[in-house]
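User: I'm putting together a teaching handout on how multi-component assemblies are represented. Below are the sequence lines for each component of a complex, exactly as they appear in our records. Could you produce the 3D structure of the whole assembly as structure tokens, so the students can see both representations side by side? Please keep the chain order the same as the input.
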Amino acid sequence: MKLAKAYLFLYNTAAAIGWSLVLGNLIWGVYADDAWSAVEWSLKISQTAAVLEILHCLLGLVRASVFSTILQVSSRIYILWVVADPFHDAVGQFLAFKTMVLAWSLTEIPRYAYFAIGQVQKPPKWMTWLRYSSFMPLYPLGAASEAACLYTVLPLIKEARPYSIYMPNTLNFALDSYFTSICSLLIYIPGLPFMYSHMIGQRAKYVKPADVRSTSASKKVD
Amino acid sequence: MDVTIVSRSGSKIAQVSLSEEAKLRDLKDAFHKTNKKYYPERQRFTLPATSSSEKPLPVAEDVPLNDQLSDATVVFKDMGPQISWRGVFVIEYLGPLLIFPTFLMRPSIIYGTDLPPLIEQQYSGFVAFMFHYVKRELETLLVHKFSNSTMPIMNVFKNSMYYWGFAAGIAYFLFHPLYTPVTMGRYAFCMAMFWFWEVANFVTHAYLSSLRPAGTKVRKIPRDGAFEFVSCPNYLFEILAWMFFNLFTSTLVGWAFFVVGSAQMLVWALKKHKNYQAEFDGKDGRELYPTGRKALIPFIL
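Assistant: Of course. Below is the structure of the complete assembly, with chains in the same order as your input.
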């Protein structure tokens, strides 16, 4: 459907631009020694907008796994809004914060550019290769950075308990962000291998061995 | 006819000789003979794809292969180890039946000591929830007549996480020492409504079962009562039952469970409605599916 293609083209282009801004801001922020202030708004907008992608999957606009999309997006949103934002004075100083934003933007720019082009024509082989290979160093870097930020900030979360909800209340619901943060940290243990192997599987589908210029260093993907 | 079986990446897997009138079942049996690992329930065959972004079309069961295949080629996908539908249902519904009593009878392991006694609304919620899943187990074993025999075994984990997870979540808040009940009037009315719609759902299941002779996959047009308005009154009644369950127990997790379950049932109802309309198209002596019916919500959807 033409409208869907147009919308997806616009969304993915906007996202690619957004993340390029994040990367640019990050470089500036590291140079100016205030990474958080530099990236804050471009990061918040670009990453939070990604929640739309869950909707895209559910509505069938995009052929992607709902589960892996929810896992991916919610872990990013959690790190951004529960870990980084409430404690940005501390987190902004971490090396892990900078490597995290670097990993995120370096993965997302090729990814969104690939999807944007894909609405119009078949993306060139090098773009496909980039989109399905950048995760290989960047997923572990990103996940390790996220986990490091989370772990370091745990004592602060225990103290402040951001976004927590307490009982009694009429909807009989409670949420303890210290508890959920520990659970989030533990989820990385199965989560990263799952996401990584999901991408390996995707790579096998889209990057045929013939596309990869054969050198002795290139791995045969099965 | 000779049918070539290829993998999704295009490489040839096997070639089988079939009769000219052969259908999907014959193809599956023949392929199974060449490779013992892939029993028929595990095999999925689709027509060669015309474009890479479209979902591949499955090979139809009742149409001779000769009429479906343009160049006698089919694409094979291994659906992985399978488990019977009956098996999955028994396992996934068992969780709630074990989890709720644990919370009720050993709350100290979850909430600690010095707990206030439970109130009537909590016991009623317990009975309602337990009844629902006992009913489901009994229906699975004695009432339902399944169309498909199996599903991928990974579904057991996925489905169980859903049922067991929500059961634990609802139990945690329903039996919580700081649980706040709704007003007596609302509790009484909504609980009564829950039971009414539960029974309605059961009656509908029993009727649907009576339409299908044992051991067949026959589908007949359901008649009378709510069926005159919707294709899937069983889903509608279950949605109503859960709505009233949450209105009288009032937990956010319970409402989340309601939303997810209802969305799933809506999707199933739309699919089922489409299948009925496709099968009962009024041609070749088949009945025409009544046109006024909607999928799930009378007059609306």
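A couple of points students might notice: Residues 2-31 of chain A form the longest helix (30 residues). Chain A touches chain B through nine residues (CB under 8 Å).
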